[in-house]
TrEMBL record:
Domain Fibronectin type-III: 53-163
A GO CC term assigned to this protein in UniProt: dendrite
One example GO MF annotation: ATP binding
Keywords assigned by UniProt, alphabetized: ATP-binding, Membrane, Nucleotide-binding, Phosphoprotein, Receptor, Repeat, Transmembrane, Transmembrane helix
One Pfam family of this chain: fn3
Name of the protein in its database record: Ephrin type-A receptor 7
Length: 163
């Protein structure tokens, strides 16, 4: 096979053109490499286009009821070329002094769950009263964890009321 083509198996009768966002720059390639910033998930076959992580979720809104926060958002503008987008929530508790934030820990409840969310809403329960929190909502897909670029997320900071 020439440049820009590949043959994944010796049983293949003919060469295939490299999928979108991939290339082969030497003759006789058995697979095509992804362009910079694009990835192929381990479960993706060689004939599938290389894709990238999704952009951040949009229009993040929240509703506080004492020590419970409901978060809702819109899907990312760019799904990275994949249809396996889910969401994960990162919770940080922040001190009153600017910039001191630590992960919330395991005593916080998430309904329906914290990671692998297919819907674009979550309720976070059992927060401390009169505390500052920052929530990051990240859209992820099958290649997000392969990317070395900065995480893209929507964030909101809130202060809880009394318990």
């Amino acid at each position: 096979c020439g440049r820009g083509f590949y043959k994944s198996s010796s049983q293949d009768l003919q060469c295939s053109r490299c999928p979108t966002h991939s290339f082969s720059d030497k003759e006789g390639s058995s697979r095509c490499e992804c362009e910079d910033g694009y990835y192929r998930a381990p479960s993706d076959p060689p004939y599938v286009a290389c894709t990238r992580p999704p952009s951040a979720p949009q229009n993040l809104i929240f509703n506080i009821n004492q020590t419970t926060v409901s978060l809702e958002w819109s899907p990312p503008a760019d799904n990275g070329g994949r249809n396996d987008v889910t969401y994960r929530i990162l919770c940080k508790r922040c001190s009153w002094e600017q910039g001191e934030c630590v992960p919330c820990g395991s005593n916080i409840g998430y309904m329906p769950q914290q990671t692998g969310l297919e819907d674009n809403y979550v309720t976070v329960m059992d927060l401390l009263a009169h505390a500052n929190y920052t929530f990051e909502v990240e859209a992820v897909n099958g290649v997000s964890d392969l990317s070395r670029s900065q995480r893209l997320f929507a964030a909101v900071s809130i202060t809880t009321g009394q318990a």
